[in-house]
Amino acid sequence: MPTCHTAAPTPARKGLFLSIEGIDGAGKSSHLATIAQALEAAGHTVVLTREPGGTPLAEKIRALLLHEGMDARCEALLAFAARRQHLLETIVPALEQGHTVVSDRFTDATFAYQGAGRGVDWVALEWLEQWVQTTPAADSPHFQSPDCTLWFDLPPAIAAERLQKARTPDRFEAQTLAFFTNVAAGYARRAQQAPERFCRIDAHQPIAQVATQVRQCLAQRGYLSGPTTPPVYA
Ligand SMILES: Nc1ncnc2c1ncn2[C@@H]1O[C@H](COP(=O)(O)OP(=O)(O)O)[C@@H](O)[C@H]1O
Ligand SMILES: Cc1cn([C@H]2C[C@H](O)[C@@H](COP(=O)(O)OP(=O)(O)O)O2)c(=O)[nH]c1=O
């Protein structure tokens, strides 16, 4: 069974914002299409996006992050720079139109990889999170954060085994088991800090059972009963 709370209070925006998280090899990509299809079948208009990336500029930053060696704080700043552009150009406009945004990774990844993995100060990341994710609005600025995060939790040794069979590693995937153990602990820390937002998926199960958990989580939150947008009366 997934560990998942019922829906959090509806935020002051029209659309629903979901993020998918987990260490490399946890199985996120294998379930993205299923998640989008389940939501669409329930009436959502889904905008599938990813981090780092999601806009032309942020995709250029992604290429730097994945393939160029750099200082850990530089990594964190680039991840947040890409995120700001992603929010302003892609995520917020989609949410304002009432779409459901599904992002393959978001800020939890920066806490997990740059914070817990690379040792960048957690409080500095919390400050950046507030600064970068506050966007202008007609009434007052809004803090933009996912309504729900599906966290694929898998022991790092199993993830490494799966990845070894799957693909040529990028700069992050080539890291040691010790690094991914820290990254996994970073995700656990974020989940502990926001239990109402996180839905933990036990990813150490056959793929069909993982898919069932994902569905249960979406259903438990009420997302498979249709979009959360309130009706508009003339
Ligand atoms: N539940 C599972 N059991 C066994 N292998 C899996 C499972 N889920 C995914 N895989 C395999 O593990 C590898 C990594 O999965 P992927 O979805 O690419 O992970 P991620 O996107 O989290 O890095 C792929 O080869 C995929 O086919
Ligand atoms: C969003 C984000 C990703 N990353 C890393 C995690 C991943 O190793 C990598 C890209 O993620 P991902 O898209 O999951 O890689 P792939 O397409 O190979 O499955 O970027 C960070 O280090 N910090 C961040 O803030």
Could you please describe the fold and organization of this structure?
The protein has 8 helices and 8 strands; from the N terminus they run E-E-H-E-H-H-E-H-H-E-E-E-H-H-E-H. With 234 residues, the chain is an alpha/beta fold. It has a single domain, classed as Rossmann fold. Strands 1-8-7-2-4-3 form a 6-stranded mixed β-sheet, sandwiched between helices. A hairpin with a 6-residue loop joins strand 5 (134-135) and strand 6. Helix 1 (28-41) packs across helix 8 (207-220), helix 2 packs antiparallel against helix 3 (72-96) and helix 4 crosses helix 7 (177-193). The protein is globular, with a radius of gyration of 17 Å. The model is unreliable at 230-234 (pLDDT under 50). The structure holds adenosine-5'-diphosphate (ADP) and thymidine-5'-diphosphate (TYD). The site of thymidine-5'-diphosphate has 16 residues, from helix 4. The site of adenosine-5'-diphosphate has 15 residues, from helix 1, helix 6 and helix 8. One of its GO terms (biological process) is dTTP biosynthetic process. Pfam families: Thymidylate_kin. Its EC number is 2.7.4.9.
TL;DR of this structure?
With 234 residues, the protein is α/β, with parallel strands linked by helices. The chain has helices at residues 28-41, 56-67, 72-96, 107-117, 122-132, 156-166, 177-193, 207-220; strands spanning 3-4, 16-21, 46-50, 100-104, 134-135, 142-143, 148-153, 198-202.
